[in-house]
Amino acid sequence: MEKNKTYTLKDKCKALGPGILVVGSFIGPGTITSATRAGATYGYALLWTVIFSVIAVIVMQEMAARLGIVTQNGLAEELVKELSDRPPLKWAMIILVASAIVLGGVAYMGGDLTGTAIGISSLTGIPSNIVAPIWGIGVLILINIGDAVKTLEKLLSVCVSVMAIVFVVTMIIVKPDLGELLMGAVPNVPQNAIMTCVAMIGTTVVPYNMFIHATSARKTWHNPEELPLARFDVTISMIIGGIITGAVMITAGTVMRGMTVSSAADMAVQLEPLLGSFSKPFLSIGLISAGVSSAVVTPLGVSYVLAGLFKWKMDKTDKRFFATNIIVVVIGIIVSATGYNPISIIMMAQAVNGIFLPIIVIALVFITSRTRVLGQYKNSLLRNLLGGCVAIISLVIGISSVMSLF
User: Fold this and answer.
1) Cα-based distances in Å from 90 to 82, 111, 140, 238, 372
2) Number of domains composing the chain
3) 1 lies in a domain?
4) From the centroid of its chain, how far is CA 188?
5) What would the pLDDT profile of 51-91 be if each residue is shown by its tens digit?
6) How far is residue 276's CA from residue 280's CA, in Å, rounded to a whole number?
7) Which regions span the lipid bilayer (predicted)?
8) Within 259-341, where are the H helices?
9) CB–CB of 120/113 below 8 Å?
10) What is the pLDDT of residues 232-287, one digit of tens each?
11) pTM of the shown model
């Protein structure tokens, strides 16, 4: 049985940190694009995917944070350690997790570059498939100049926060129908909406964020007595992220219903009730900020996961770690330069992460339910049931989305 120290609300608020970083990671071009298209195409009908995603991300990120704090290790390292006496199972798990993280990360990278590119394209008129590769080269430079990235991320996080507030305020101004909102909270998949459902889940419950959160939590907290702080951080942060995502979908569902979304200019329409003619440049700047912030983090996230799985050094002095950064960005550049509709590229990137999500969920539930890993801090029956539900629901939706392609 867990015995945790009692903390005041002030203590908990001061401890907010790793969870906010996770929200900053998933509130990117993918979330804005997916939620806008979902609202414009299906109104409020897919609001339930936001609710499910928030519950799922709270459950999974809490497990990741708890693992990091109690073991003072990352998720990847603990998976390898726990299965070290069963080589076939260990390598099967490594291959599955590595494949899911790499493919999901590459897809996300393509979406991040494309999101930044459509923001720049909206302001300059230069085609996004030309802007994206140029920006990709910029990312390669940024991730190799150390502290400059941290300074840039702080600045961009302010821009993304302002954009999020604007969406929430706009949602209130447009006065959505409350009865219809309640109906949207009931799970229902409209015709041809399965890939959008997967994208909505994949853009919030991001597989590599679970690995990043475990590492971030262990660096922030060093004692199991601090678990209440981590849980408060996770819960409040993910709810804030869900409110922002829901606000985008609801605003689009109110202002843009029936519209085709194919550019930043189309997405900006939903902000006109608040910003008027300034909505297009504002959203473009927001997409650029969100895209830049995510694009810098994504290759590093993939590299950290592989480093944990294969016991590399977790810095650029290890050539394999460094090469992974480069490869993820280069493949992302190729994806973003294909010339396909940029909105479709971003939607597909989120869907790919949603399809691979069950693999990471199962791995996380497995490792956090092991007594020899977490002892008294292992998953309770309720947490295992919740984790199992997340895995099953995401698996069913993922399989359905793949079948819909044939």
Assistant:
1) 8, 31, 33, 31, 16
2) 1
3) no
4) 23
5) 999 999 999 999 999 999 999 998 999 989 988 888 888 89
6) 9
7) 15-35, 41-60, 91-111, 117-143, 155-173, 193-211, 232-252, 282-309, 321-340, 346-369, 381-403
8) 264-268, 272-275, 279-310, 319-336
9) no
10) 999 998 998 899 999 999 999 999 998 888 878 888 899 999 899 899 898 888 88
11) 0.88
